[in-house]
């Protein structure tokens, strides 16, 4: 969870997240999304990871620990944002720094 500061409308009674367009992101002008869906076929993930890394993207967003591990094998330089990971530190997907 996060806070709404600067990323949501200022009216606290109707607080909501701003859309990418409201933040100035216009698809195919200054932001592009390269979406790959494995549809439960885990064997497709390494190919997808290599393909996305080859696109020279700025960040990779994934769902699930298995996908994070596969993308980590494909790149050590592109930041990976992930969700739906129960124990990222315990699964050795990230570390806690002081």
Q: What attributes does this structure have?
A:
2 helices; disordered N terminus; 98 residues; alpha+beta
Count the E strands: 2
Spatial strand order of the main sheet? 1-2
Radius of gyration: 16 Å
Q: From the structure provided, what is the oligomeric state, counting identical versus distinct chains?
A: single chain
**Please, how many helices?**
2
Helix/strand structural class: alpha+beta
Largest sheet: 2 strands, parallel
Order of helices and strands: HEHE
Helix content: 10-25%
Write the layout of secondary structure elements.
Blueprint: H1 45-54, E1 60-63, H2 65-74, E2 80-83
Parallel strand pairs: 1-2
What does this structure look like?
- A two-stranded parallel sheet has the order 1-2.
- With 98 residues, it is α+β, with helices and mostly antiparallel strands.
- It has a domain at 35-98.
- The protein has helices at residues 45-54, 65-74, and strands at residues 60-63, 80-83.
- The longest helix is centred in the middle third of the chain and has 10 residues, at 45-54.
